[in-house]
Amino acid sequence: MNIKNKDLATRRSLLAGMGFAATGLTLGVTRSAIAQQASTGFQAKRHPGDRWLNDMPGDHRVFIDSSRPLGGAEGMRYANNILIAHTAAYNGAESDYAMIVCFRRFSTPFGWGDEVWEKYGKILNGVLKFPDPKTNEPFSVNPMNIADRRDLPNGGNTIESLGERGIIFAVCDAATRVISGVLARNVGGSADEIYAEIVASAIPNSQFVPAGVLTATRAQEYGYSLLYAGI
Q: Contact at 8 Å (CB) between 175 and 185?
């Protein structure tokens, strides 16, 4: 199998494994959900696994969702813009915000450490189709960790810099497991071992969640505004 066909097969395998063919974009039903709760007094059932959503301090709550590399990068820029606008226009503090940036589907690998990108970068590029715009080569580090690249769509906002400002990153566990299987098939390894390797490399200020789409809905039940980043 040539490289082009192998990349296509890999991407099709990932799509099939994650059920993308039957799944549309999560564009949110926040407004109707809030209206329903207000009119009926409905209170969603609470689950211990979601408690962290309510433990984050802040006067405002925002959940920035992304499902593709461009969206993940733009979501980081959006987080920065929200904090800047709040402090400038409202004389507020960045600590006023409980803010989560979610990496799911094809943006999920942004929640993984540089060691994983160094080891599997070429395969990941075949899946994500997100090469370095300067060289058109695969990234060998997590591109959201690169601080001196203003040409990238995150605009210089890095995982480290946003984490220092209180941003939390939700990383889709379901997608991580599927992509672990793709990596395993490409290198002849164990999907479980690669999954464990990925989880151990998780970026700082991150929280693995069962599925990004699920957490996007649960966050709304805890009063988070939903903002979708990307196409």
A: no
Q: What is the b/e burial string over 54-80, where b = at least 16 CB atoms within 10 angstroms of the residue's CB?
A: eeeeeeebbbbbbbbbbbbbbbbbbbb
pLDDT in tens, 192-204: 999 999 999 999 9
Domain annotation covers residue 194: yes
Structure tokens at 127: 């899946």
Entry pTM = 0.84
Q: Compute the distance between CA of residue 116 and CA of residue 106 in angstroms, rounded to an integer.
A: 15
In CATH, what number is assigned to the domain containing residue 151?
Answer: 3.40.1260.10
**209 bridge partner residues:** 172
Number of domains in the chain: 1
Which structural domain range is residue 218 located in? 30-37+46-228
CA 197, 198, 200, 203: dihedral to nearest 10 degrees?
150
